[in-house]
Amino acid sequence: MQVRALLFDVFGTLVDWRGSVAREAERVLAPLGHVLDWHTFADAWRAEYQPALARVRDGRRRYTTLDVLHRENLERVLPTFGVGAIADATLEELTLAWHRLDAWPDSVPALARLRTRFWLAPVSNGNITLMVGIARHNGFVWDAVLGADLARDFKPRPLVYLRACQALSLPPGACLMVAAHASDLLAAATCGLRTAFVARPLEHGPGHGADTPPPGSIDYSASDLADLARQLGG
Amino acid sequence: MQVRALLFDVFGTLVDWRGSVAREAERVLAPLGHVLDWHTFADAWRAEYQPALARVRDGRRRYTTLDVLHRENLERVLPTFGVGAIADATLEELTLAWHRLDAWPDSVPALARLRTRFWLAPVSNGNITLMVGIARHNGFVWDAVLGADLARDFKPRPLVYLRACQALSLPPGACLMVAAHASDLLAAATCGLRTAFVARPLEHGPGHGADTPPPGSIDYSASDLADLARQLGG
Question: What residues in A contact B142, CB-CB < 8 Å?
Fold first, then answer.
């Protein structure tokens, strides 16, 4: 079956969340006199991500957008870095750091090439506004924004992948999930999607063990998004 | 409150469904020996639209995409034009006529101008694939595709407008609904959105009574989309 649409994981796969959040945190907090290890702070904030999503996936909490979860997680993490009594507007500005994540250098040109041959859509756990913010910040052009808000649930729950294929009126086998994370690809494959692994060795910082291709069969394994575009005949 | 996002009705407002469906029907059916009044056929097909949506809105039927409803309506209308025994592939090709609707001449340049200043998204009763097809056919660039599939209901039900604003994390007053139809704008205004009427005098053919601005207050009334872009300072 011919691939018609590419569905993208975003955090880590297309954008450098760690470096960008560290930079934004410094930009917002340093002028207020706070001195943190900014990358460690980014890691700590991100470490709250999966537990927060798990509560929704498990049905312990109704669907809540990632923007809201990011804000809650921020308020939980800041005191552990000795930062307290922050104005609401500052917390909001900092939460929006996730809307200003920089793309990896190859993402924008590779997406532009791929868009001449395939429909492109993010299938992220980020909500629609968050995806629009990141797209505007980097110049990504999407055909549609799919993912968590459409399914009102989070990856790797099957409904998120299946609702994305359904929204494009495509069978899962005509959709290629592109991600830098094995767990995302394994879940997509279980739903019948085709899969492409893109290496992002710097996602967690130099020497901090980025993800490797999942065991078993994946359809493509690429050194970066430009390499994937080449493999797909772009 | 400043307008941040423009939300667009599509059928009639951005694209000429009547002329395009007539052309596509002739392209598909004439080679099979059928001779119809193609514009009358387009009108008859479209006349089945609101009754089909009403069954979903009223709860008599669960949410069904417009692509599916278009197909069902086509199968109901064709026999009334003396067309029977059509191959499934031909019915499917004809249903996809709605993915190949041509934009009114001013739509593409006006959207491009407006996108430099606002987030743009369709809020249509068309499903996501249908919106992607029309966008690809014409070169529309959207920030997100909102509307029926996201709300799993049809305009003018309030949830469709409210879920669109919510997806962009904007209060309704920061969203401007743009449509050539008074009923759409009145429903949006009831939800707190701002409203812009765009005249499309040829929607139903020359001299066939296009819609007029709704009574009461609307925020903008424009002679076409280029005029709206001018009024919004584009």
Answer: 142, 144
